[in-house]
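Inverse folding, one chain.
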């Protein structure tokens, strides 16, 4: 087998990533090789003895160098899989992560329990549109107002919505939190806002700190700036008994529940991630259960 064969290049890349101490060296190597050479996993195996031309090998080497320098694979590929879809990334968007799927799953259960055929929800700080698109795909008669401060993020989210086939029900809106939304217009609000305390930004992994947009990370001095704004303004924007669903950072459950309680919203459920960390919270108006006619089971 030639040293420039597909198999040899793949093995060499795996070894280099392992030696560098990357968290997922084999996965990273497979993703980069397959994408660079236009292969799927089966092709990677079936064609391992074939020679790789010099141009392709050079492109792979350049991408490998970027990964070894700390750039996440998703940023190198320009896309990231989340829930049931693949999402284009851009410099203005946070790379969607598995923890946020907990919020999508909780929101989906709350939406199903309502039993409404048509409803409108808002995704605040939509970024790639990952949350909005995932929920729109699950609920074909729903519509979403996707809000973000970054026009670049909204352009990326629009493309992702179109690519997932939900573009006609995805309304992109440039704005600050809920300010531009009409009172009483929403059945639900979902958000994965910035929640990292400003002083903790420098302690983040370099792949996050250097490649995710600061606007989507920095939650202010105590990490709660966005939650203060969302909780204080959510109730007037919701229909009676409407729902507020939020992703939170480590150790923030008590503070966010207190902010919601002060704003007249009642806590209904907390969902933990796979590490047992409280990750998603559900709040609603005091009469929400009466409006729904039933509660949401685990």
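Residues assigned per position:
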């Amino acid at each position: 087998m030639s040293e420039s064969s597909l198999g040899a290049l793949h093995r060499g890349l795996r070894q280099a990533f392992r030696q560098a101490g990357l968290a997922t060296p084999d996965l990273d190597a497979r993703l980069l090789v397959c994408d660079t050479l236009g292969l799927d996993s089966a092709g990677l195996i079936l064609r391992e003895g074939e020679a790789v031309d010099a141009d392709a090998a050079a492109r792979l080497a350049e991408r490998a160098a970027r990964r070894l320098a700390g750039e996440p694979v998703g940023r190198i590929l320009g896309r990231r899989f989340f829930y049931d879809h693949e999402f284009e990334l851009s410099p203005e968007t946070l790379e969607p992560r598995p923890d946020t799927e907990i919020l999508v799953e909780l929101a989906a259960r709350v939406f199903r329990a309502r039993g409404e055929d048509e409803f409108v929800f808002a995704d605040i700080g939509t970024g790639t549109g990952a949350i909005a698109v995932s929920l729109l795909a699950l609920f074909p008669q729903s519509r979403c107002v996707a809000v973000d401060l970054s026009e670049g993020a909204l352009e990326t989210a629009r493309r992702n919505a179109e690519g997932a086939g939900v573009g006609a029900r995805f309304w992109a809106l440039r704005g600050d939190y809920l300010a531009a939304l009409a009172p009483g217009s929403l059945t639900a609000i979902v958000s994965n806002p910035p929640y990292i305390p400003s002083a903790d930004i420098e302690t983040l992994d370099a792949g996050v700190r250097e490649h995710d947009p600061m606007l989507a990370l920095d939650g202010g001095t105590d990490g709660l700036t966005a939650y203060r704004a969302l909780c204080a303004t959510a109730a007037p924007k919701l229909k009676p008994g409407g729902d507020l669903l939020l992703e939170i950072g480590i150790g923030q459950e008590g503070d966010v529940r207190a902010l919601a309680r002060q704003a007249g919203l009642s806590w209904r459920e907390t969902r933990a991630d796979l590490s047992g960390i409280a990750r998603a919270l559900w709040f609603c108006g005091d009469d929400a259960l009466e409006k729904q006619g039933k509660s949401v089971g685990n």
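The chain has twelve helices and nine strands. The domain at 6-77 is CATH 1.10.8 (Helicase, Ruva Protein; domain 3).
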